[in-house]
Write a structure and sequence with these properties.
The structure holds two protein chains of two kinds. Chain A is mainly alpha-helical. In chain A, the strands form two sheets. Chain A has a two-stranded antiparallel ribbon with strand order 1-4. A two-stranded antiparallel ribbon of chain A has the order 2-3. Helix content of chain A is about 75%, strand content about 5%. The longest helix of chain A is centred in the last third of the chain and has 44 residues. Chain A has a single domain, classed as ABC transporter involved in vitamin B12 uptake, BtuC. Chain A starts with a helix and ends with a helix. Chain A contains 13 helices and four strands. By secondary structure, chain B is α/β, with parallel strands linked by helices. A six-stranded mixed β-sheet of chain B has the order 6-9-10-3-11-12, sandwiched between helices. In chain B, strands 18-19-20-15-21-22 form a six-stranded mixed β-sheet, sandwiched between helices. Classes of the chains: A mainly alpha, B alpha/beta. The interface between A and B is medium-sized, with 24 and 31 residues.
Chain lengths: ~350, ~500
């Protein structure tokens, strides 16, 4: 809870600073766009969080975004499939990818880093091969599909509207949070992330839960890829979704997930994803920050946040043991008196 | 007694009223002892008596809260391991501290590599290592990878490493716990040789036979205090046990006779993955407590893990209450009514960073889930409260992290986690390892209560007293094979050791 407040404070701080330093921040267009981007990245970050909670990692998120983002318009336009068939096909691909990651990691005992790193290379390479490096788009058609990402629900009485991706993200957030915190399966994932062996010795099929985490991650990456391409309208296989896995992992870590596993909240991760997007936005908007140092700024903020978090933890631990020291002599005098 | 040129009557190391506290646990309370060159000083005591803490202080790993160390008649502070080594004090850990990806020679000189022109002088390492390996009677090349050595050989390398820093005080923490009898005898000969050369050896063990064989004097620790000191001529098994336990053993292991019922757990030709060539048949009845004895590596844990379904069975059958099963996972075993308190509490038994309540609730989540998917929080809270009460687990709050509890209370959490599942068969693997003496007695009392209620109990233990005193029947294993069964008057340390080392009772009797 404290962690969520901390990251939320950081989000508010960056928003306020950017609003002061740039008059373009609080424009309707910018806010709406920012919410849309944050929601899309929130979805893939939740996927990353599930894998990280089990003590794993998924580096293939960006490439799955690319694969889905390029193949979906390709199926509709080049192959002239019906939207339903294309949706079924990309769902099958995303779930299949997650399933194979999970099986390789649990049954063959391969390291998640290696499996998903290979995934990162394979899916992007495969996408570029399939569509022959050609940019894939919707050619101005399929506006009813693109409305999923671009549309909004107008708020009565104002000029504003709630972007559809925010609604989808909120739905995913609620389902994910309920799953992680209230179902037995969520508890299994947290437990096995901390100590896989003890969880297995408690009668829990840990392999199945790990596979499920990778399937969830790939499914949300696929959903993200779909919404991204519906939003932008076209996807270039060389760089679509590039580095998105790192944004997702960074958001999960900022939001309180430990890469050691067993720790994390969905709400924190969503806020973490928003922090990343607001940060990128402010770098673009604030004139005296050169845009080309974007990565350096993001890296520095995450590192700073992690250092502050660790220092706070140490101070708290030191205070706790200090208190314990004060209690001890009292205890021993009581013993000797007795 | 031998009087060598290196023997002297001035102590090389004196421990003077050392105390050490961890959180709420007083690990050492005014412990004193003197170590003389050319003598083997055994330090014995139950688990949790403070042996390991004392050794860590002597080796500079920990700092005492009170008291002082005197080395060569000068009060000395050992700030860290290298300052202890500088005074010639070396600790050989229970868990060996070798880099098994490096060669023997590289390990002996790790951190002190001789150099030539700034680069490692491999020729010199090889040459000097050979000399130290010879001193410990190890006939291997310094270029052998440590991972290619047996545990016994690795231990000798550790000793060679200690000799290479001119150790005058060698501390050995349970050195024979993973050795066969022959390997242990080789180690004793090296110790005899070091003693003759004037090295002081501090020998920690709870194998009293070894202590009798080696020690020139014995210091007994109990609950962090000096419980007694025995000179060479006073050392006897009974005296040592009496000082260690501090009370009459018959009271300590409180057994109440009760009726033994129908067979509950039956293994029929069960073959483990580790020893598939040896099918195991055994039966445990309702209300019966069966001890599983054997040396480390005899296959007891493998057997228990296989019965529990956490390791796959290669063949055979587990019957519970007359019904035969082939477990695919431990979820199946739990459903059949089996529970296992595993050997490695911290790794297999508990999730240390999580709450007491979460740990106790974990195995029951599936059984009590609501609407097919949701956790039953209320059930978890109630079960935890009941277990804390029944097992007298000392916790400030059920949400407290298990990490912050003492070893005894941690073990009670593991037991509570399984009692809340109401098993018919309770398997325990080293149930009192690393547990203080009070908690130990409570665990025995609890096992007795469960047996009285008709639970079939099968427990593996390396503590001879525990096996002898707590079992209705003892089964002894050796290299994956069930060597024999002992009942009544047959249950003696000698008989168990004979079977555990691979001989049969008939041949030893003859």
């Amino acid at each position: 809870m404290k962690k969520i407040l901390g990251i939320f404070g950081l989000l508010v701080f960056i928003c306020v600073m950017t609003a002061i330093l740039s008059d373009r921040f609080l424009t309707e267009f910018n806010i709406e766009n920012l919410i849309r981007r944050s929601a899309l990245f929130g979805i893939i970050s939740i996927g990353a969080a599930f894998v990280i909670v089990t003590g794993g990692i998924d580096l293939s998120i960006g490439s799955v975004v690319c694969l889905v983002g390029c193949l979906f318009p390709w199926m509709l336009v080049e192959l002239e499939w019906s939207p339903l068939a294309a949706l079924a096909a990309i769902s099958a691909i995303a779930l299949g990818i997650g399933l194979s990651h999970g099986l390789l990691i649990t049954k063959l005992r391969l390291q998640p880093f290696v499996v998903t790193l290979c995934g990162l290379l394979i899916y992007r390479g495969a996408t570029r091969g399939i569509v022959n490096d050609q940019t894939q788009g919707f050619r101005g058609e399929f506006s009813f599909l693109r409305n999923w990402s671009q549309g909004q629900i107008p708020l009565p009485g104002t000029d504003f509207g709630i972007p559809n991706p925010l609604l989808i993200m909120l739905l995913v957030t609620v389902v994910a949070a309920v799953f992680l915190n209230l179902t037995v399966y969520g508890r299994y994932m947290l437990a096995l992330g901390r100590n896989e062996e003890a969880t297995r010795f408690s009668g829990i099929n840990t392999d199945r839960m790990v596979i499920l985490a990778y399937v969830i991650c790939a499914a949300l990456s696929g959903l993200g890829g779909l919404l991204f391409v519906l939003d932008v309208g076209s996807a270039q296989p060389v760089d679509f979704g590039n580095f998105y896995e790192l944004y997702a992992i960074a958001a999960a870590v900022l939001g309180g997930c430990s890469l050691r596993g067993g720790e994390g909240t969905i709400l924190g991760v969503v806020i973490g994803a928003a922090v990343m997007q607001v940060l990128r936005n402010s770098i673009t908007l604030i004139d005296w920050i050169p845009t080309n140092i974007e990565y350096a700024v993001i890296g520095a903020v995450i590192l700073g946040g992690t250092i502050v978090d660790e220092l706070v933890r140490r101070v708290a631990a030191a205070r706790k043991s200090g208190l314990a020291d004060v209690e001890k002599p009292a205890e021993s005098t009581a013993e000797s008196a007795a | 007694m031998k009087t060598g040129a290196n023997r002297s009557d001035t102590p090389i190391l004196q421990v003077d009223a050392i105390s050490k506290r961890f959180g709420g646990v007083q690990a050492l309370d005014g412990v004193s002892l003197s170590v003389f060159p050319g003598r083997v000083h055994a330090v014995i005591g139950e688990n949790g008596a403070g042996k390991s803490t004392l050794m860590k202080i002597l080796a500079g790993v920990l700092q005492p809260d009170a008291g002082r160390l005197v080395v060569d008649d000068r009060p000395t502070v050992l700030q860290n391991v290298s300052s202890a080594l500088g005074h010639g004090i070396a600790l050989i850990h229970q868990e060996l501290n070798l880099c098994d990806n490096l060669e023997v020679g590289a390990n002996i000189f790790l951190g002190r590599e001789p150099r030539r022109l700034g680069l490692i002088d491999f020729a010199s390492i090889r040459q000097q290592s050979r000399q130290y390996l010879q001193a410990v009677g190890l006939d291997i090349s310094p270029d052998t990878l440590v991972s290619d050595l047996t545990i016994a050989q690795q231990q000798m390398v550790e000793i060679a490493k200690a000799l290479s820093v001119d150790a005058r005080v060698l501390i050995m923490d349970e050195p024979t716990s993973s050795l066969s009898q022959r390997e242990a005898e080789a180690l004793f000969q090296v110790i005899d040789k070091l003693r003759a050369e004037g090295v002081a050896v501090i020998y920690i063990s709870h194998r009293l036979g070894e202590v009798q064989r080696l020690a020139d004097e014995v210091t007994v620790l109990r609950d962090g205090r000096n419980a007694g000191r025995l000179a060479r001529e006073e050392i006897s098994h009974d005296r040592m046990v009496q000082l260690m336990v501090g009370r009459d053993i018959s009271q300590f292991y409180a057994r109440r006779p009760h009726a033994i019922g129908q067979p509950v757990l039956e293994l029929r030709g069960l073959r483990t993955l580790a020893w598939p060539q040896h099918p195991i048949d055994l039966t445990v009845h309702a209300g019966e407590m069966v001890g599983l004895a054997g040396l480390v590596g005899a296959g007891r844990s493998e057997l228990l893990n296989t019965v529990f379904g956490v390791a796959p069975a290669v063949g055979g059958q587990v019957k519970v209450g007359g019904r035969g099963y082939r477990f695919r996972s431990c979820a199946d075993a739990i459903e059949a009514g089996i529970a296992l308190v595993p050997e490695d509490r911290k790794q297999q038994g508990l999730i240390l960073e999580m709450a007491v309540r979460t740990n106790i609730g974990l195995p029951g989540l599936a059984r009590h889930k609501v609407a097919g998917v949701f956790q039953n929080r209320r059930r978890e809270i109630e079960d935890t409260a009941q277990m804390i009460d029944q097992l007298r687990i000392k916790v400030a709050d059920p949400r407290q992290r298990v990490q912050d509890l003492s070893g005894g209370n941690q073990q009670k959490v593991v037991i509570g986690k399984w009692l809340s599942m109401h098993p018919d068969v309770l398997l325990l693997d080293e149930p009192t390892r690393g547990v203080d003496i009070g908690a130990k007695q409570e665990i025995y009392r609890l096992m007795e209560e469960l047996a009285e209620r008709g639970v079939a109990i099968l427990f593996a233990s390396s503590e001879m007293e525990e096996v002898i005193s707590m079992s209705d029947r003892v089964l002894v294993m050796h290299e994956g094979r069930l060597m024999g069964e002992l009942t009544g008057d047959q249950v003696t340390e000698e008989n168990i050791m004979h079977l555990a080392t691979g001989s049969t009772l008939e041949t030893t009797k003859a």
